Amino acid sequence: MDHSGHGMDMHDMDLPPFTLGRGLEFSFDAFFLIGSLVGLGLYLWGVVRLRKRGDAWPVGRTVAFTAGVLSVALVMCTKLNDYGMVMFSVHMVQHMVISMLSPILLLLGAPVTLALRALPPAGRGRKGPRELLLMLLHSRYMRIITHPAFTIPMFIASLYALYFTPLFDFLMETKPGHIGMMVHFLAVGLVFFWPIMGVDPGPHRPGYVMRMLELFAGMPFHAFFGIALMMASEPLIGTYRNPPASLGIDPLLDQQWGGGIAWAFSEIPSVLVLIALMYQWYHSEQRAAKRADRAAERDGDRELEAYNAYLASLRARGQ
Predict the structure, then answer these.
(1) Ramachandran region of residue 123, left (φ > 0), alpha (ψ -120 to 50) or beta?
(2) Who has the most CB within 10 Å: 15, 102, 116, 165?
(3) In the beta sheet, which residues pair with residue 78?
């Protein structure tokens, strides 16, 4: 079922009652299907290019990035996308996956690092894709949009300023508006988690404790948002007030389910990111310890050589 018309037209269509099986059926969405295929294709091109050159690229990163792309396709190129136009609970699954799970998986794939290693330098005095990417990474614009003073308020505003104002209903009226909203969710998730994950190079590289504080600064607002929806005594969002009769759902109950999903989902990324951070922290400590050991070994050899030279000088004077 294609929803290439206006979002509100979905209310006139007879969708059968939602089941997971129906929700996971393929539903063509040109923008996200082509975007997913292009993103995955470029990533795999980079991996193959490195391998041909004899450079290693961790399999885990490729798996994580592929899972991230598939998670976007799962919620945008299936009938979850159709049901999400008329059921708030299904829309909230889409929102949570594309703004919190997909970005984490994509970032664990280290696509920026891969691009910098795979793209060839353009040559002296010229600017190719690699040079443009480096310019973007070091730009003032990137410093602003990845700074916690920007990312945390934007992460919170994507919930409260969108759902509790007429903006959401306006965007849901057209397909471009709906696509733009979903792209916004993905982009906000990427810039929020990018400095926290710390896998790819970026303008901000806070310490591990600071990253954890940034992570936990945003998450409670998701929980409060979910609870507000669960506690509401009437449907709050116009788009979902009058679902098609064929669905056989109560809009208030559907909203409560959506609130529960938002509340529960706020914990999942926190745990995933925390595990990744602890893993990185442990390995950085291990690397620091090895560097210190190597330095100590080198210094020890130097001290031994100096002592031997001192003994030799004493013997020379004694002769």
Answers:
(1) left
(2) 102
(3) 26
